[in-house]
Design a protein that fits this description.
Layout (H helix, E strand, L loop, with lengths): L1 E6 L4 E8 L2 E9 L4 H15 L9 E5 L5 H18 L3 E4 L1 H7 L6 E9 L2 E10 L2 E12 H11 L3 E4 L2 H13 L3 E3 L9 H10 L21 H12 L2
Parallel strand pairs: 1-4, 4-5, 6-9, 9-10
Antiparallel strand pairs: 1-2, 2-3, 6-7, 7-8
Helix pairs in contact: 1-2, 3-6, 4-5
């Protein structure tokens, strides 16, 4: 089964093709949200180098967020269009789960994506019997509140994601020897992880299709927030 996976939830646009356990190719660019111009050419280049066509793909996978509102819309719309045109199944994977999947550790894994205003998108995961478990659902939370929770409940903590670059000192000051920071290569969203998770969860393709799959924003966009504030001010 060939899988085309895409993740555009952060500044990194990444796509990958897998064939069961084999990663055939992966393409990533950090272009500060130039996803609308870069994503389709990236997919085209990757497939051409593998001598494949979009119609050769058996399963589509896409990161559904949380993350950049615009980035998510671009990635999800692109993959849904492919799935629609070729009538193939599609699986949505949490960006946070994809980040956690990058890391192997005996403790818990806490991916963090910057949500601005001293907040992060996060969840808590662990590995058990070869499977990644979600033990705290994805959410958006103040970094101080998250660190209080981690400090009071866990001792072996691995953190990854772009949120650690902003909050690294605060994390270390609060958690001390309880925390480790993932290597840089494990802090970036990878389409290969999204694709492998999609293979594990391919039965969930029956739960989603190109009509029903939607982003997991976890909060309002700034435009929505400003609009609601303007409405309240006019009352």
């Amino acid at each position: 089964m060939k899988v085309l996976a895409v993740d555009t939830s952060t500044v990194i646009a990444t796509c990958a093709v897998l064939d069961e356990e084999n990663l055939l190719g992966e393409f990533s660019l950090n272009q500060n949200f130039g996803h609308s111009e870069n994503l389709v050419p990236m997919v085209k280049t990757l497939l051409e180098n593998l001598n494949l066509k979009v119609s050769d793909i058996d399963l589509y996978a896409v990161a559904t967020g949380p993350g950049s509102f615009t980035g998510l819309r671009i990635g999800i719309a692109t993959v849904k269009a492919f799935a629609h045109v070729y009538n193939k199944p599609i699986v949505g994977i949490s960006t946070l789960e994809g980040l956690a999947f990058n890391v192997r550790t005996n403790g818990i894994i806490v991916p963090m994506i910057d949500a601005r205003r001293n907040r992060v998108y996060t969840g808590i995961y662990n590995w058990e019997n070869g499977y990644l478990n979600n033990i705290k659902e994805p959410t958006v939370v103040e970094i101080d509140e998250l660190l209080e929770h981690l400090d009071g409940n866990y001792n072996n903590i691995m953190v990854n994601g772009n949120g650690i670059y902003i909050h690294r000192d605060k994390i270390k000051d609060k958690l001390g020897d309880k925390v480790e920071f993932a290597p840089y290569i494990q802090n970036s969203c990878r389409a290969a992880s999204i694709g492998e998770l999609a293979l594990i969860k391919k039965e969930e393709a029956n739960l989603n299709n190109y009509f029903t799959l939607i982003p997991e924003y976890l909060r309002e966009s700034q435009a929505q927030s400003d609009y609601r504030k303007k409405e309240r001010d006019n009352i």
